[in-house]
Amino acid sequence: MAVNLPYPRGIKPVAGVAIGVASSGVKGDAADVALFSFAPEVHIAGVYTQSAFKAAPVILAKEKQRQSNTWVINSGNANAATGEPGLADAEAICASAALALNAIGQTASLATVQPFSTGVIGQRLNVPAYQAAVEQAASGLAADNWLAAAEAIMTTDTQPKAVTENVTVNGHTFTITGIAKGAGMIKPNMATMLAFMACDAGIAPALLEATLSEISETSFNRISIDGDTSTNDCFMLAATAQVGSMQFETASQEGFAELKYCLQTVAERLAQAIVRDGEGATKFVTVRVTGGLSSAECLRVAYTVAESPLVKTALFASDANWGRFCMAIGRAGVEDLDPSTVSLRLNEVVVAESGLVSDTYTEAAGSAALAGDEVVVEIGLGRGAITEIVWTTDLSYDYIKINAEYRT
Amino acid sequence: MAVNLPYPRGIKPVAGVAIGVASSGVKGDAADVALFSFAPEVHIAGVYTQSAFKAAPVILAKEKQRQSNTWVINSGNANAATGEPGLADAEAICASAALALNAIGQTASLATVQPFSTGVIGQRLNVPAYQAAVEQAASGLAADNWLAAAEAIMTTDTQPKAVTENVTVNGHTFTITGIAKGAGMIKPNMATMLAFMACDAGIAPALLEATLSEISETSFNRISIDGDTSTNDCFMLAATAQVGSMQFETASQEGFAELKYCLQTVAERLAQAIVRDGEGATKFVTVRVTGGLSSAECLRVAYTVAESPLVKTALFASDANWGRFCMAIGRAGVEDLDPSTVSLRLNEVVVAESGLVSDTYTEAAGSAALAGDEVVVEIGLGRGAITEIVWTTDLSYDYIKINAEYRT
Fold this sequence. Notes:
The structure is a homodimer.
Chain A: E1 17-22, E2 33-38, E3 43-48, H1 56-64, E4 70-77, H2 83-103, E5 113-120, H3 127-139, H4 146-152, E6 161-169, E7 172-181, E8 194-199, E9 202-203, H5 205-217, E10 223-224, E11 234-239, E12 247-248, H6 256-276, E13 284-292, H7 295-307, H8 309-316, H9 322-330, E14 343-346, E15 349-353, E16 356-357, H10 363-371, E17 374-380, E18 386-393, H11 397-405
Parallel strand pairs in A: 4-5, 8-11, 9-12, 10-18, 13-17
Antiparallel strand pairs in A: 1-2, 2-4, 3-11, 6-7, 7-8, 13-18, 14-15, 14-17, 15-16
């Protein structure tokens, strides 16, 4: 059902990362636990949901970030809105992970294991089942389990999301691999979305943090499926320092720009994969707003259009409905917007210019432009030089079906 | 399809208001033009859409408000995003109305006729067809045409919306009657919604304006169907000064509070009727947020919940999904919200207390609470004394069907 999302191929291990997966039985036989164990040299950075209802694992993961060398992830239950007992449950699973890792000679403790969860909200975890799965995962740690982990963290996703890129800098070839899970509730500021990336370069903690913040802004913070944001979202980046002769300390260091671009590319492709697999999506929609006075106003217009149910249903129907775009642009709250400078292009078809339906526009051309499953909506505000891009989907019957019937 | 919305009955004329309806042929034989002609003593106030893409009629109606004694309304074409030509088209129809009214001895001019339109955006009006209908409407002016007018202004509405109330104040019985059209694109700050109310009391312009602003705030500005706002919304109130011995000049005058309460009631019932007839609605949902520190934060939570596609699809599925409410409340942007003081009640069933699923809650009770078509969602923030209410609907397959297939 995903829109032009090929099954991941050629996913490469990252030196210094060992991964195990296992099934707790909560989702039948399917793996629902993934354990990431990192080399001691690792530094880890994270971006966490801004929801006031932060799930227990998010609270703990944030606290433990500085000392972290392990990620334990479960799908099926989000351990959110579970209060103090939820924190204890998450810690119990972290403790099992640390013990299992110690048993195979790895250094880990309660302070170094970050928990992550996704799934149903408001229910207690089946702690013993997940603990058993964590132990099993630890016993099967291997470098090439990225794709298996991508599968283990899925909820309503229809297929795993994983991306690998290489970049050669200063004579060293670095590998960056990432996985993500998404589906519904996707919107900026970290929605129900988990993304885990690692690279084998050495990056100092402050630089890693700054880099992650920057690349999340133009990847996971530029996607929206239904405007809903979740309690559990996290985007994590580990730098294992296994390749290269030094650690990057500052962004201006030779080669870091290339490495960052590559990290950025992986994050962007993962973010787009989440949209392509959005619940009920039949089209992948790029909303590009040009000619704004500021990034903020471009994004306001882009998100209002991307999240408008009337625009989304029109896109689902392949209806190049200028009226609905007007409506959405008009209510985006751009100060002193002059409608007579606004234009709309759908793929290569000019629908409106100077605030009016274009003389050259025909309904047949509009329908043809929307007939495919990749749509670029380009809105020109005609008042400045700033451009911003947001990725989203249409709104289909299947969105309702999935969300009216979903319960794990 | 509307949720518990009885067909309007007992709609009473308002002294000083004559109404004609006619068909332009644009919507087949159905009436799609309504003409309101007021007694010379009338004062008129209006609230207009805040969209940057204000439709031509909205721009003109706003300009003409002070001198207005006539409303001419068409459905089928919104005359929006039509630029300068759209303004000329609207004025041409106003001119026809003024001429037709002059011909039957009424005082009217281009300056006194306010135009209103609703329907498809971005297409030019069929001016001659509407002009002919306006002339026909003028020839059939009558006091008891409110319900016919309510039918003439419908677009995707499944039934007309009209409400009458009486109030006896200072020995005089005043009549207040109103009509409205809504359906999709309903959200505060005037969505694609037209509402026209008249009362036979005399109310000075400044007081009328202030009163309208106040009653719109707690009626039409408290409803949301899909979060989309339109280019054409207007809420108009005429005071014809045909009943009573004096004109109300200030809000503190004896009897005005009763009259205002009655105006408020009519506006609230019309606003609720719009929600009950929301596109694809299967439930009428009252979202009440209590215990807030401010009205603004209560409304932020109420609207975030009311507009969350995940909450709306859960309501459609009669799924008392605490997780989705958490998610929506959590992302509403209430500063320093403490999840452990938040509660949720669905009709009489306590779902969550202190941020956790209630000990007494059962899934059967939750499903039973949502089985009917009237749902009160009560969210307690537990941090203050303010309460706010918003009305909305669920999100169903039919919403997609209507909005993916709609084109007049």
